[in-house]
Amino acid sequence: MSAIRAMILLIGLAVLAVGSVAPAEEVAPGITFTSYDAPGPNRVHIVTVDRLRSEYKLKVGWPQKRRNYTARQTVSTIASLYDAPPSHDVVAAVNASFFGTVPSITGAAASDGEMLDQPDSNYETFLFGPTRLPIIRPDIGHVNGKLTFADGSSTTLHSYNKARDADTIVAYTPQWAPTTGTIDEGVEVILADVSYPMRSDKAVAGVVTAIATGAASVNNTIPAGGMVLSATGTPVATITSKVQAGDRLTMFFDTSDGRWNNADMAITGIGWLLDNGAANTANWAKYSYSTQRHPRTALAWNDEHLYLMVCDGRCNGIVGMTFQEMADFLIGTLGVTDAVNLDGGGSSTMWVNGQVRNLPSDSCGTERAVGNAILLVRQDTSTTYPLSDSFADIGRLAGWDDKFTFNGVQVFSPASPGGDGYAIQVQDPAGGVETVRRGDFGDADYAVQSDIYCEYRPGVAGNGFERYCIFARDNGMGALGLNGNYGSGNCYALTYDSNNGRLRAAKYVNGTISDFQQSSPVYMASTAWRNFRIECLGSRIRYLVDGSLLADVIDTTHVRGYFGIGYHEFFATNSNMHGTRADNFSAVRLAAPDKAADPEPADFTTDVPLVTVLSWAAGAGAVSHDVYFGTTSPGTFQGNQVAATFDPGLLQLGQTYYWRVDEVNDYGTTAGDIWSFT
Which residues of 128-164 are buried (b: 16+ CB within 10 A; e: fewer)? Predict the structure, then answer.
């Protein structure tokens, strides 16, 4: 063997020792599964997810598909309970929380907008929300919440989704179990139409449908989309005297960390592996097993990707990893910046598309029953356009997401143009910023508009002012002018200031507002309902007031995100707040339509009757259709039409026909598939 060949072989062996990789397997668009050989020796399994793909959600799955489970189950069993493609397709799963006696887990958990386990001021909690950029927070603690009655009075809301203690009020949400599980009499208030998601430092509201007392107050059903407030002891008298059917109650939930205000999913691990690209060795010193080699499970990420990680161990010569070895692998191989350690040992399991893909250490291949699992779910939550809400007397439609408090519909005069005398009022009684939003992280090209009551208030300008607005392409925090624990405002906004009537074609970046009209500011120093509209199409952002163009700019700062109604007050005295009054809200898509689908006759159909009318399902956003039809592909252009049917006339026996429908709107034309029949 030549010296050069020997050197190449040695280099190859060195590379293998550092980490060799099997070819990445595409699990779904934007998701791959890869197994690595790493020093130790070790075998590491990684699911990589495009962080910006909004159809992929992280959720927590539970044994028996209920938080109040009665027996632990394996990761594969838990995943299968939640797997319901195509609407709720569980693509991958790993084990999650450390656990104790059934049904206890260590630390906090939240999923799908429900807070399911209270934080206990220990360890490190992974938070994931609408921005799709996780954070890790140490030592989050529980803080009692508040239950507010219809008359405005309130009492302490002690806890949620746990066994009820004496003299407390507990809120039970649908993921807890089918029923509350209570056994001692007290009172249980059943609520419908709760304004989830439920987060820290935020209130949700629901309407009372029933009040169960005496023997009926035990183990009531938790309605889908609802909540049960369960009390025993001292609070019972307060609730029974204050609550009646039809009341709207408000439930405020809290923790010691405001950052949970922006998270819909949470899970507590033990061991903060990486912080901002560096090994977090100061944290590891608290945990003696950090220097021991064990099978491991971790959640990790960087700017581009989320990672589910499982390292095998205790079997077939595979030894497992220390915290330092995990950190070295995550940084050196994947370029991870942040990571948290989850339960490991015999619990470490990775399930991908119906199969366990690692080797669990118990008996070299037997899955251990665990307390819960992290689920990677494919679920399309993109906005269905057009969307509208007239804020009628029955209240706002379901699906609005409040920042801090429930923002309800109120009687308001003067009525908006064409309105019914009702409007939504957006404000937090505590002051500062409040928003209510809709949409999806992936929403990009759309127009949003609403009638906004622009109240010109120079008489109180000496005490400050308030800002009314609509916003678009929000990053998911709904934070407007905030920049801190409760998030940073990042969006486009059309705003009105009450002190001087200034309109802004605005952009928020990390809570700082700028005006595209800064060089020639616009003022409307009068009180009136005004129609605000923002159009986002690619990099072009247009601001319109009452149909007149305020600004037309090219800007690439915000490329996607949520939309809604906002408020920010700058008064020295909160009693001066009036809030943003809004009515006739709507959003429409500004994009070429989707493809036509579902042809009739179906593609390749034979023996079609000679007298046949063609039809199809119009693509979303289409306003008309270019129809092609003929005996050669793709057919001859027959014209543009509104109807989703076409009469080709009398057909010829045995002739094959080709046809295509291109969908058309003001923003483009989408070519359809070529279909045929005989």
Answer: bbbbbbbbbbeebebeebebbbeeeebbebbbbbbeb
233-259 per-position pLDDT tens digit: 999 999 999 999 999 999 999 999 999
DSSP3 helix / strand / coil % (the chain, rounded to 5):
10, 45, 45
For 387, residues 6+ apart whose C-beta sits below 8 A from its C-beta are 438, 586, 587, 588
List, in sequence order, every residue forming a beta bridge with 333; answer none if it has no partner: none
Buried residues in 227-246 as b, exposed as e (16+ CB within 10 A): bbbbbbeebbebbbebbeee
> Which of 103, 84, 83 has the alpha carbon at shortest distance from 93?
83
Rounded to an integer, the average pLDDT of 161-170 is: 97
Nearest to 94 by CA among 333, 325, 298, 312: 298
Stretch (H or E) spanning 189: strand 187-192
For residues 241 and 317, state if they share a domain. no
Check pLDDT > 50 for residue 17.
Answer: no
Using only C-alpha atoms, what is the Rg of the chain? Answer: 29
Could you tell me the CATH number of the domain that includes residue 162?
A: 2.60.120
Amino acid (1-letter code) at residue 598: D
CA angle 600, 606, 609 (to 5 degrees): 70
Contact 370, 343 (CB under 8 A): yes
Strands (E), 491-527: 491-497, 502-509, 512-515, 522-523
Q: Is 423 within the bounds of a domain? A: yes
Of 340, 355, 378, the one marking the end of a domain is: 378
Tokens of 613: 């009318």
Both tokens of residue 545?
A: 């007031």
Give the mean pLDDT of the chain. Answer: 95
Kindly state the percentage of the chain with pLDDT values over 90. Answer: 96
Residue 505 has pLDDT above 60, yes or no: yes
Give the CATH number, domain containing residue 655: 2.60.40.10
Q: Which of 206, 234, 255 is the last residue of a domain?
A: 255
Give the per-residue pLDDT at 1: 36
Tell me the residue length of the chain.
678
Q: Which of 330, 304, 373 is nearest to 74 (CA)?
A: 373
Q: Global pTM?
A: 0.90
634 lies in which domain range?
Answer: 597-677
Three-state DSSP class for residue 217 = helix
Strands 614-617 and 597-600: antiparallel
| Closest residue by Cα to residue 437 from 394, 470, 411, 410 | 470
Residue 8: pLDDT band with limits 50, 70, 90: very low
Tens of pLDDT, residues 262-321: 999 999 999 999 999 999 999 999 999 999 999 999 999 999 999 999 999 999 999 999
User: Are 159 and 195 in the same domain?
Assistant: yes
Q: Which tokens belong to 145?
A: 């919440």
Q: Residue 621: its pLDDT value, please?
A: 86
Across residues 66-78, what is the average pLDDT? Answer: 98
Instruction: Please indicate, yes or no, if residue 483 is contained in any of the structural domains.
Output: yes
d(CA 530, CA 548): 11
C-alpha span between 399 and 539 (Å, rounded): 28
Coil, helix or strand for 258?
helix
